[in-house]
Specification:
By secondary structure, the chain is an alpha/beta fold. 46% of the residues lie in helices and 18% in strands. The longest helix has 20 residues, at 211-230.
Length: 386
C-alpha cells in the first residue's frame, strides 16, 4: 500500500498543474531596461516555486529580456555543468544581471568562472547554501530566509499549536551549512526552554544514491512511526524542499503538527499534498490556496495544526531580486551598496500584488565575527495559521 501511495505521489508531483495558467498578479511591465537579465533556478523536481518565480519574470518582461536556465537536478554530482551554465551566460554581453535561486552548493565556483570574463554583471543570490561570508564577497545582493532567526518563532508557533515534541529531519550535507546548523541548534535550545522534547532525525540525502524518491519514501514510512511513538502532539520540520509533500500528507493523515515548510509559503507542498488544483488564471492566487487549504484541513479536523508564511519566500526573493536588479540597470539605485528602502519596497510590492494585503517582512543584515555584511539580507515573516 505504501509503495502504491509513493508511486501515486510521484505521479501527482510530476503532473501537478498547481501553477498552470497562473500569472503573477503584478502590473504589466511599465518600462524597459538595458540589456537582459538571467535567472538560474532549481528545476521543478527540486523546487517548483523557484522555477515558477523565474517564469513569472519571463512573462512580465518577455523572453527577449529575461533568460531562464535551470541547475542540473543532481547538482552535487554535476557542478561542472553549473560552471558551464554561468560561463555561457557570461558570454552573452547583453546579460547585465543574474539572479540565482537557489544558490545551491557549487554556485560560488560557477560565479567565479563568470567573473573571470565579466565584472559588470549584477549578481543576486537567493537562499545560498555555501559559507555566508564567501557568498557576500561574490554577490551584489543576497536574499536569505533568516534560518537561525526562525528557530525561536518556529518552536513557539509549534507550542501554540499544542506541540509537546518537536522532530527535526535533516541530513549531514545540510547540517554542514552554517545557517541551517545554527537554526537546528536554536530550535533544540528553544525546545528546552519551552519544555518541548526535541528529537533529531536523520533522513537520506535527496542527492545521494537513492535520489529524491528514497528520501520521500523514508518520510512516508518514518513519520507514522514517530507519531505512533510520541503521539499526535508532535511537530515536524524538515530542511529539504523535496520532503515537504510526503511530510504534510503523513502529518495530516496522522493528526500531528506542522509549523512551517522549509521554504515557508502557502503553495510549498500544501497543494500537492492536499490535492488542490488551481483553476485557470489562479495559479499564483495565494488567497485561493489559503482558502482551499483551510477548508480541507477543517474537514479533516486539523484546523490550527498547520501553518506557514503568507507569501512564498522562494517566489518573493526571485521577483524582488529581479526588480531591484532592473532598478540598478536603469540607474535608479547605485550599483554599490544596497538601498534598503527601495529593496523593502520591491518585496512589499510583490507581497501586496499576490495577496492583496500588506505583509510585514523583517529584514536585517548578516553579521559574523563582529562584521556586518549589508548586502546579505536575512528575512523573516509572521505566521499564517490554517
Amino acid at each position: 500500500m505504501k509503495k502504491l501511495l509513493f508511486i501515486a505521489l510521484i505521479l501527482f508531483v510530476a503532473l501537478s498543474t498547481v501553477f498552470a495558467g497562473g500569472k503573477q498578479g503584478q502590473a504589466t511591465a511599465s518600462g524597459a531596461f538595458p540589456g537582459k537579465i538571467a535567472i538560474v533556478s532549481s528545476d521543478v523536481s527540486q523546487n517548483e516555486e523557484e522555477y515558477r518565480a523565474a517564469q513569472q519574470v519571463v512573462e512580465k518582461y518577455g523572453a527577449d529580456k529575461v533568460i531562464h536556465r535551470t541547475w542540473p537536478t543532481n547538482f552535487m554530482a554535476e557542478q561542472e555543468q553549473m560552471v558551464t551554465i554561468l560561463a555561457e551566460l557570461a558570454a552573452d554581453r547583453d546579460v547585465k544581471a543574474v539572479i540565482l535561486n537557489q544558490s545551491v552548493p557549487g554556485t560560488n565556483p560557477a560565479v567565479d568562472k563568470l567573473k573571470e570574463t565579466r565584472n559588470d554583471v549584477f549578481i543576486v543570490y537567493c537562499q545560498p547554501q555555501e559559507n555566508p561570508v564567501d557568498v557576500a564577497r561574490r554577490a551584489d545582493l543576497v536574499f536569505q530566509n533568516d534560518s537561525p532567526g526562525m528557530g525561536i518563532p518556529m518552536v513557539k508557533q509549534a507550542k501554540a499549536q499544542g506541540a509537546k515534541v518537536f522532530v527535526h529531519y535533516s541530513f549531514p550535507r545540510h547540517m554542514s551549512q552554517v545557517l541551517l546548523a545554527s537554526r537546528r541548534d536554536l530550535i533544540r535550545d528553544t525546545c528546552a526552554a519551552e519544555g518541548i522534547q526535541y528529537v533529531d532525525a536523520t533522513a537520506p540525502d535527496p542527492t545521494g544514491d537513492g535520489g529524491l524518491p528514497a528520501t520521500q519514501q523514508f518520510i512516508l514510512e518514518d513519520v507514522p512511526r514517530m507519531i505512533a511513538r510520541y503521539g499526535k502532539d508532535t511537530a515536524f520540520f524538515a530542511t529539504n524542499c523535496g520532503m515537504q509533500i510526503p511530510l504534510i500528507k503523513t502529518i495530516v493523515d496522522g493528526g500531528a503538527i506542522y509549523p512551517q515548510p522549509c521554504c515557508p509559503s502557502p503553495t510549498h507542498g500544501f497543494p500537492a499534498a492536499l490535492g488542490i488544483e488551481a483553476p485557470a488564471g489562479r495559479g499564483t492566487d495565494m488567497n485561493y490556496f489559503v482558502g482551499e487549504t483551510k477548508k480541507i484541513l477543517a474537514s479533516k479536523g486539523m484546523t490550527g495544526r498547520l501553518s506557514t508564511w503568507p507569501v512564498p519566500a522562494a517566489m518573493a526573493w526571485t521577483n524582488a531580486g529581479a526588480e531591484y536588479a532592473i532598478k540598478v540597470l536603469n540607474g535608479q539605485v547605485s550599483r554599490t551598496g544596497i538601498d534598503n528602502k527601495v529593496l523593502a519596497d520591491c518585496i512589499s510590492e510583490y507581497a501586496l500584488a499576490v495577496t492583496g494585503t500588506n505583509v510585514d517582512v523583517q529584514m536585517k543584515p548578516y553579521v559574523e565575527a563582529g562584521r556586518t555584511y549589508d548586502n546579505f539580507k536575512m528575512l523573516i515573516m509572521g505566521y499564517l495559521t490554517y
